[in-house]
Amino acid sequence: MSEESGRRNLRMPNKDEVFAVVTERLGGNHVRLRCADGKERLGRIPGRMKYRTWINEDDVVICEPWSWQDEKANIEWRYTDQDADQLRREGHIQ
């Protein structure tokens, strides 16, 4: 990556994943998500991310809605603030 351009190749959602913004921490490994498809979901932070990646309010994440219970989702990826700004500039998220 060149520092002049500031453009990085970021991980994008797969066909069954969506962008989401963390709106509230609920304690433990649960958060409230506002997803790009317009739905509010209960997000679960998986064990592989729980202690390695801190997730706070207003973080941009990729989540995978549960196929059997659409109002819940697993968090798959968290973007840094700089990466989230790049996604907003490129029009991927609001």
From TrEMBL:
Gene Ontology molecular function: RNA binding; translation initiation factor activity
SMART domains xrefs: eIF1a (SM00652)
InterPro entries the UniProt entry points to: NA-bd_OB-fold, RNA-binding_domain_S1_IF1, TIF_eIF-1A
Residue stretches making up the S1-like domain: 6-80
Keyword annotations from UniProtKB, A to Z: Initiation factor, Protein biosynthesis
Domain of life: Archaea
Recorded family membership: Belongs to the eIF-1A family.
Function: Seems to be required for maximal rate of protein biosynthesis. Enhances ribosome dissociation into subunits and stabilizes the binding of the initiator Met-tRNA(I) to 40 S ribosomal subunits.
Xref: HAMAP family: aIF_1A (MF_00216)
The name this protein goes by in its record: Translation initiation factor 1A
Gene designation: eif1a
